[in-house]
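Query form — protein Thioredoxin

QUESTION: What is the three-dimensional structure of this chain?
INPUT:
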Amino acid sequence: MKDVQESEFVDVVVEGSKSRPVVVDFWAEWCGPCRQLSPLLEQMAEQHAGQVDVVKVNVDHAPRLAQQFGVQGIPAVKAFVDGKVAGEFTGLQPAPVVAQFFAGLGPSEADRLVIAAGTESDADRRRSLLEQAMELEVDHPAAALALAADTDDVEAARAVLARARPTPEVQQAIAALSLTATSEEVGNVEDLRRLVAQGDEEARVALGRALAAGGDHEDAIAVLLDGVRTPSTKDEARDALLEVFTVLGNDHPLVKQARPRLAAALF
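ANSWER: The structure tokens for Thioredoxin are given below.
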């Protein structure tokens, strides 16, 4: 198992856990139970190689990390998933307990089916694998996203996404579907631009949605902000703008620029 220094913890553990789980053994050389647990963790690392990474942090060499993650006794074993602690135990534990801890970190059967579907070239077979995954986990986000992407039926895609856990990716997909569906109902961009130019305020929100659905997010945000500033379309434009924000994600530069402008327009 790799000994991780304080300076590399973020890269190896926090960022690394965004690709696959990372189990951290907080230990010290003077700790007898730590030395007893170490061979078992080594065994688990071998059994789960390629699926779970296992590293060690010497608390005497990295006291700030121990304090940051609330290590009050050692050995303290913490599993990181997506940059956060997802599970932990403290003290020397029996082999079955440690094995169960690791088993809960690896891909589930539903995960494996989704992975298999990703390599399947036959559309019917791929769909069957994804449906099996959702039978095992009715709210599996990756399976729902893949099923939704596999259909041209907007309502069917919405229905399957509605069953999924509301991860950021699922919320983005739902918002994108909403924008697309609305834009298909209201007509093309040029017709909507003409209506807005003629003073049709109701067409402004539809134009913003249509622009966003077509990928012109910067123009869509500008149009919808104008809609928020208009009393008759304020609420509808705000809701559409928030959908655009969801599609782009909070870290997108356009969203960061537009949020203060939205707040100013609202208040």
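ADDITIONAL NOTE: The beta strands are 2-3, 22-27, 53-58, 76-81, 84-90.
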